């Protein structure tokens, strides 16, 4: 078997690409990443992470269900998070949480949707 | 590992049913005393209306509201003094539904006089075996107190209710 460094060198000097892949694969990067956006009623809204995450925590403290999608447009019929429901999605790659709230939705505050991500 | 919690289902009605589902029984209360009914919220909800039942005598007013278990009035929950209507269910629909996070609360009712008759019953003793209590702080100038003060047992069990958005008509 070839030396690990040798293979990377021989592949055409793609060490930066390999390192980028490892950054994505290696778990446990400290510190959560905020998602920013607004939750306008009855339409698709983008809650965007500052950078791609691989773990998402959601808590719906609103009094109505919140339909969501990962990196694609949400509709009223999207996967709903029920009031009081707490969800952890692990081993995913996501940049934008899409929501389609039935009423104005606040973010990361009481009565709204809490969203946090980790690399 | 992913994790999903299963929240409680929002109730159709939060009601003091043991005091409500009685036949031909009404009770009078002490003026301006805040009577309490304890309840729990399992999942976030918004209260659309609060309700109370009146007997044949109704010349005064009623304030209803919601307190936290710590005794703090939930903002926006005081109905202000509403004129009682005899022999019927009295309903106050909030202009803005009152949001309640999961937790423990009291539904509160106070009357402006001691003669109006309410749907409810008078107990032989101030038992501590039910959800009914009373507050030390009283109604002032037609408004519920911002805090309950000390909470104690009562002989009065009132048929009060709160209905979440999407709850029972």
> Which sheet architecture does the biggest sheet of chain B show?
6 strands, antiparallel
| Amount of helix of chain A | 10-25%
What's the order of the H and E elements of chain A?
HHEEEEEEEE
Question: How do the SSEs of chain B run, as a string of H and E?
Answer: EEHEEEEEEEEEEEE
The number of helical elements of chain B comes to: 1
Rg of chain B:
16 Å
Largest sheet report of chain A = 8 strands, antiparallel
Described by the principal axes of the CA atoms, the overall outline of chain B is globular
Overview of the molecule:
The complex is a heterodimer of chains A (119) and B (169). Chain A has 119 residues and is α+β, with helices and mostly antiparallel strands. Chain A contains 2 helices and 8 strands, in the order ααββββββββ. The longest helix of chain A is centred in the first third of the chain and has 11 residues, at 15-25. The two termini of chain A are 32 Å apart. Chain B is mainly β. Classes of the chains: A alpha+beta (119), B mainly beta (169). At the A-B interface, strand 6 of A face strand 1 and strand 8 of B. Strand 6 of chain A pairs antiparallel with strand 1 of chain B.
Q: What are the SSEs and their pairings?
A:
The complex is a heterodimer of chains A (119) and B (169).
Chain A: H1 4-10, H2 15-25, E1 33-36, E2 45-53, E3 55-60, E4 66-70, E5 79-81, E6 86-89, E7 94-99, E8 113-118
Antiparallel strand pairs in A: 1-2, 1-8, 2-7, 3-6, 3-8, 4-5, 4-7
Chain B: E1 3-4, E2 14-15, H1 17-20, E3 26-27, E4 33-41, E5 45-53, E6 61-68, E7 82-83, E8 89-100, E9 103-111, E10 118-122, E11 132-138, E12 151-152, E13 156-158, E14 160-164
Antiparallel strand pairs in B: 2-14, 3-10, 4-9, 4-11, 5-8, 5-14, 6-7, 6-9, 10-13, 11-12
């Amino acid at each position: 078997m070839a030396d690990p460094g040798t293979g990377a060198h021989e592949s055409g000097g793609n060490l930066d690409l390999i390192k980028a892949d490892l950054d994505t694969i290696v778990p446990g990067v400290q510190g959560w990443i905020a998602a920013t956006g607004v939750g306008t009623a009855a339409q698709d809204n983008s809650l965007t992470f500052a950078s791609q995450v691989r773990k998402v925590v959601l808590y719906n403290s609103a009094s109505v269900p919140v339909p969501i999608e990962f990196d694609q447009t949400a509709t009223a019929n999207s996967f709903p998070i029920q009031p009081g429901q707490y969800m952890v999605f692990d081993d995913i790659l996501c940049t934008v949480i899409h929501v389609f709230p039935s009423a104005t939705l606040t973010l990361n505050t009481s009565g709204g949707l809490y969203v946090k991500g980790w690399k | 590992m992913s994790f999903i919690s299963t929240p409680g289902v929002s109730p159709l009605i939060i009601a003091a049913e043991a005091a409500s589902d009685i036949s031909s029984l009404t009770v009078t209360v002490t003026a301006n005393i805040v009577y309490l009914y304890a309840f729990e919220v399992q999942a976030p909800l918004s209260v659309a209306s609060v309700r109370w039942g009146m007997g044949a005598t109704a010349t005064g007013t009623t304030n209803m509201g919601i307190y936290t278990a710590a005794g703090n009035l939930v903002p926006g929950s005081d109905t202000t003094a509403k004129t009682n209507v005899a022999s019927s269910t009295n309903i106050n629909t909030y202009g803005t539904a009152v949001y309640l996070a999961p937790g423990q609360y009291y539904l509160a009712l106070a009357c402006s006089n001691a003669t109006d008759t309410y749907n409810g019953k008078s107990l032989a003793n101030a038992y501590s075996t039910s959800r009914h209590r009373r507050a030390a702080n009283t109604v002032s100038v037609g408004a519920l107190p911002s805090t309950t003060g000390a909470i104690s047992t009562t002989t009065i069990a009132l048929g009060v209710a709160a209905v979440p958005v999407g709850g029972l008509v």
